[in-house]
Amino acid sequence: MTAFQQIVRGPGRKPHHVVVRQLARGFDAVNAHVWWSHNDHFHGWVLRRLRAARGPAVVVDVGCGAGTLVAALRARGGRVVGIDPDDLMARTAAERFAADDGVTIARTSYFDLARGDGLVPAAGVRGLTMIASFHHLAHERGLEATLEHARALLAPGGRLVVVGLARPSVTADYVVDMVSVVLNPLMGLVKRAQGLTFRRAAPAEAGRNEAGMPVRDPDETYTDVAQAAARVLPGARVRRRLWFRYSLEWTAERSAA
């Protein structure tokens, strides 16, 4: 389901606010001609948030899909591990980086990762990234278990950087979504000038998006995520974002010198 379908129909096909639905319908035809990736848009932000991270020079991208963020991370140097439980995505990413010894792609579950397992160093990782994958993990094991596992995998000074999707539930959520709907085609024009748009294609099969990635609606709200982060990751920063996303970032406490 696309971001605009999510707005029009809502998770579980429950309708959102009528104004949001009308805006989404009105702009959808325009957006089809200037379609751009909301997930890829945040790559620069993710890279910037990792600059101050510490620990072994290994970053794990959880739910790596075809490997677009893995490529951006690899361009910065250091070792990159991309994991995805989906066979198609893992195979696609593995083929992409077959000639790069600095990248490891594994078809595995996030919850099976452990320090010293050959993917994660015994000392933990410098960075853990999740773009549009956090809600899949939360559906599987719950918000707190997902965050607790991230905490366990990070080295002291390592950073968790999440760009996620949440179910709208309060006025602030709808306001940000409405602004995103209005601005989306304008950003699309900017992206087109940069050569970063593409013609929207129909999903190959149900449950996957245009790129073939598995998709599902988020169960949790932004408030749910923020409250869970406050309980599990003291000092975590959670923010609503344009383009139907939120961000979560947290730095693991460094060991005393």
TrEMBL record:
InterPro entries: Methyltransf_12, SAM-dependent_MTases_sf. Pfam families: Methyltransf_12. CDD domains: AdoMet_MTases. One of its GO terms (molecular function) is methyltransferase activity. Coiled coil: none annotated. Keywords: Methyltransferase, Transferase. GO terms for biological process: methylation. Residues 60-160 form the Methyltransferase type domain. PANTHER family: TRANS-ACONITATE 2-METHYLTRANSFERASE-RELATED. This is Class I SAM-dependent methyltransferase. It comes from Xylanimonas protaetiae. The lineage of its organism: Bacteria, Bacillati, Actinomycetota, Actinomycetes, Micrococcales.
